[in-house]
TrEMBL record:
Cross-referenced InterPro entries: ASHA1/2-like_C, START-like_dom_sf
SUPFAM superfamilies (alphabetical): Bet v1-like (SSF55961)
Source taxonomy: Bacteria, Pseudomonadati, Bacteroidota, Chitinophagia, Chitinophagales
Signal peptide from the UniProt entry: none
Protein source organism: Chitinophaga rupis
Family the entry assigns: Belongs to the AHA1 family.
Residue ranges constituting the Activator of Hsp90 ATPase homologue 1/2-like C-terminal domain according to the UniProt record: 19-138
Listed name of the protein: Uncharacterized conserved protein YndB, AHSA1/START domain
One Pfam family matching this protein: AHSA1
Amino acid sequence: MAANENKPFAKAEMLIRKPVKEVFDAFVNPEVITKFWFTHSSGPLVAGKKVEWTWSMFNLTVPVFVKSVTPDKEIVMEWGNGEDITLVTWIFKPLAGKGTFVSVVNEGFKGDAAKVLAAVRDSTEGFTIVLAGAKAYLELGVQLNLVADKFPEGHH
């Protein structure tokens, strides 16, 4: 699923030098994704199910509704609360001899121009940090704590 180029969207992409099955699993499996993004998940990402993701260091929980999952290829989800619910599409593309190219697009931002611009900027930065953390963890086994370190004085 490609973003509508005429609407504001956030996009982040990264090559992760691991097989697509391992990379995809890292994003649907709470035991792995909590090593590089959030601290707790109420369950794995399964199509048609709702889960909650928690960042305990910020006392923040976000609902996630999983619209579809195509194993080793794509995850489509909605996340957020009320007016701030947006659509997130993850694409996992195997690259022969290189690993997996992960692309994430976040779209459906609402509000005035300033609010939408801030949301696109924050989402682009956030998903870039997530992909960098996933790369470090999956390739090297290192937990960089990038999300917590982005807000050392707490999320606001």
